[in-house]
Amino acid sequence: MTGDQRLPRPRRTADGDRPRAREFSTWTTRRWLRVGVAVSLTVLAVLGATGAWVLGRTASISDSLVDVKSPALTTSIRLESALLNQETGIRGFGLTGTPDFLEPYRQGLAEQKTDTTRLTELLQGDRAGLRNLKAVQDAVEKWQKRIARPIAASPPGTPSPLATERAAEGKTLFDTLRAVMLTQQDGLRADRVQARADLAATMRLRNWVFSAIAVLIAVLAGVVFEALRRGITTPLAQLGIDARTIADGDFAHPITPTGPADLRQLSGEIDSMRRRLVEELNFSEEARQRLDEQSTELQRSNAELEQFAYVASHDLQEPLRKVSSFTQLLQRRYGGQLDDRADQYIDYAVDGANRMQTLINDLLAFSRVGRVHDAPQSVDLNSVMKRSLSALSVSIEEAGAVITRDELPALVADPTQMGTLWQNLIGNAVKFRRPQQSPAIHVSAEQDGALWRFSVTDNGIGIAPEYAEKVFVIFQRLHTKDAYNGSGIGLAMCKKIVEFHGGTISVDPEYTAGTRITFTLASEPPETDLASTALEETNSGAQPTP
Hints:
The protein is of the alpha+beta class. The chain has 14 helices and seven strands.
């Protein structure tokens, strides 16, 4: 019974109104959870949005204070200092005629230009600030035009008559300039003080908002815990007590429905199951007999499946035997009469037919890995590798693949399965190559305690980390059949063979220049119950693998 299944409609009162308490009693656990989660998420979303706005506001005010307000006031003070240097230099030069007094004036002009440009940049968008800056620039221009430039243009060596004539005017103009500068600085200070006040208020609001979020989360956690205890944990605990009582043999013990509507309905269904169980106890012997019959039928079905697999493999080999026989006949009758290339093609045909027969036998043997298999024997993996490379010679030559390998050990294993393992891994490395690039494949082997660790590394298209497990699932393909042929069983076969021989196989996620398949094999296969295998084969009536 799911939470989505409709519950019986509650009965109405005599006057036709449905009581509210009765309405709530029909709510399922899922509905309570949905309502609770919706309310919680709504409140948290509102507080989260408020918190995000407060954080953004805090950052904006802080950036304005650090990057605009304070630098603007500092630059204004430096501008005033530069103007004072100009006034000092002009006054000294005008009274004495000494050229050295013009050096502070010139330096002040350069600083004035720099500070004015900087203030213009900082006050972009601030109309009042730009208005004050314009007033300062006008006052500076008026003072320089009437006083500074004419006196600076006077010949050095003697006092400038203009300094004496315009002394009163110069004092008045510079006092006006200083007053304008003071007005500008007062405005900038006021802006900075206001920004600090706004920042402090915003930070207080931020603290309140996040404190409220923390308190709300704590309250919600408490409410959720209590609701779960009352609505789910306690009813489930009572249901468990009743179930254990029944499991101990007291089948007459009734189950008391408690909790939300779906849990009450579940309790009723379990109680109904209890009553049915009492009835079914009378038929337990008959059920056991049916189970024995089903077991016998299953064994018979397994035997038929084994027989079918053998017959299917046999029928598949029959047309291949004809192909192989006729190509061998061509080889014997026309060998040497055609050119070398034709002889080579005939050899390829004979070899391909023979390999197909071997492949069918190997597929049948692999389908029974872990149950019916060849007797383990000492296998030289170097020889197995050479046979695998020979089987793949056509695809290797067509791809221009370069294959290198370390010296491989000799293990006690199933030689057919070892050949299948290497052929699949090397074949995949050749098949999944990068366009316009020849495959470079290296097979390495090193002993790791009681195991041998092997790696097959290539420079192909690689396997994304999220597919590192999926590639070992049977019939799972990462590419379409149009892009790369194959059935999607190769790596699944490798995994089954490796695990049967007591090892593990995986994709190395740290190697990104292509693909690196790493697997381990035991020096000797794990202990298996050969007697059980033989017994199973006898019971199944399976034919030996051809």
